[in-house]
Design a protein that fits this description.
This protein has 356 residues and is an alpha/beta fold. It contains 12 helices and 14 strands. β1 (16-20) and β2 form a beta hairpin. The chain binds alpha-L-arabinofuranose (AHR).
Length: 356
């Protein structure tokens, strides 16, 4: 008997059902009926509760869906950098390739917009959520909601800080500390362990900003004559990177190197250095992270000195994770994307093979 049939049976026996917004059909009021009818109605009501709950939460007994039947919400940070645009493209095109119905939301750099988007995805009862979280903290309440509803959350690119790691399914991201360390080691080797460095940080509170700073500082700590003399956020954008570098240059003091947490800020800094009448890559070393095509072009021109690749092509891995999670398979908590450093010595040979 289906839901309509059960309702009909109970009502035909003179019982009134009560709808509870959180639990579903929770009870009825007896107006007539013998003992047997009451038993039938109790059973029917219980069945309705189960049906109601089943329509609100993901149930392990639900028939498995294939990729073409999946609806996935993707909450993206924004479009602050070439890297971010490449990541969005990778996730969108992989969804299309697999026939997944992708609900895309651009948060314009605001966590509150991401939280709203996640709330909307949960209300739509999507099969899974892909989240690129702008900052590390503040996710607990919304992740709890998704968890309670049995909606898997796949974190891509950046991690979150939560008291219980069960609140997300898996994280697919680079090791940002290692990236920062690679950049620092490269600069130490290039400068003989002696440099006044200015730092362009990423978005405050974002995992790559925190960890790339940490890794770089670990690397230069081995060299007492390497120090960060100025450090400010350039918010991962080219415009802000340029603006902050202009201020650094104007404020005086020796600058031997720029360490930018991403390529876009480094490219902005390069413009500022040139406009100040200096030669980027020669008068001032420029090191950064991401490995986007314009960074390779700049290395070929001798302006950017090195970049640590951070692969944004996360679409295939993200949807593999979605499909496995929806199928009820266990996933590793963390998948580390492997990164590699490129400098001017190799830029020319690999530039044509760059995919983003
Ligand atoms: O989280 C990855 C970082 O975010 C990239 O390095 C940067 O370009 C982006 O905006």
């Amino acid at each position: 008997m289906d839901r309509t049939g059960l309702l009909h049976l109970i009502r035909s026996e003179g019982y009134n059902l009560h709808w509870h917004p959180r639990v579903g059909w929770t009870g009825f009021k007896e107006t007539k009926g013998n003992f047997m009818t009451r038993i039938v109605c109790l059973t029917a009501t219980f069945a309705l509760i189960v049906i109601s709950l089943g329509s609100c939460t993901k149930n392990s007994s639900e028939p498995k869906k294939n990729a073409q039947q999946l609806t996935v919400g993707f909450s993206q940070i924004g479009a602050e950098s070439g890297w971010r645009t490449a990541e969005t493209k990778s996730i969108r095109s992989e969804a299309e390739k697999r026939g997944v119905d992708l609900k895309f939301s651009d948060a314009q750099q605001k966590q509150e917009n991401q939280i709203k988007a996640l709330g909307a995805f949960i209300a739509q009862n999507v099969d899974a959520i892909i989240l690129a979280p702008v900052v590390e903290t503040g996710w607990e309440p919304v992740l709890k909601k998704a968890h309670q509803r049995g909606i898997p959350v796949i974190l891509v690119d950046r991690g979150v800080k939560v008291t219980n790691d069960d609140l997300y399914t898996t994280l697919i991201a680079s090791d940002f500390v290692a990236e920062g360390r690679m950049a620092g080691d490269w600069l130490a080797a290039k400068t003989g362990g002696k440099a006044n460095i200015v730092e362009l940080q990423g978005t405050p509170g974002a995992a790559p900003a925190i960890d790339r700073k940490k890794g770089f500082e670990q690397a230069i700590a081995k060299h007492p004559e390497m120090k960060i003399t100025k450090s400010q956020t350039g918010e991962f954008t080219r415009a802000k990177g340029k603006e902050v570098m202009e201020a650094f240059l104007k404020s005086g003091g020796e600058i031997d190197a720029v360490y930018a947490h991403n390529d876009d800020m480094a490219l902005g800094a390069i413009q500022a250095i040139e406009e100040a009448g200096k030669k980027p890559g020669v008068d001032i070393f420029v090191v950064s992270i991401d490995g986007v095509k314009p960074a390779f072009e700049s290395m070929v021109e001798g302006k950017l000195n090195c970049t640590v690749e951070c692969n944004p092509l996360l679409g295939p891995a993200a949807f593999d994770a979605v499909e496995r999670a929806v199928a009820g398979q266990k996933l590793p908590k963390n998948t580390v994307v492997q990164d590699k450093l490129f400098d001017q010595s190799t830029a020319k040979d690999v530039i044509d093979s760059r995919q983003y």
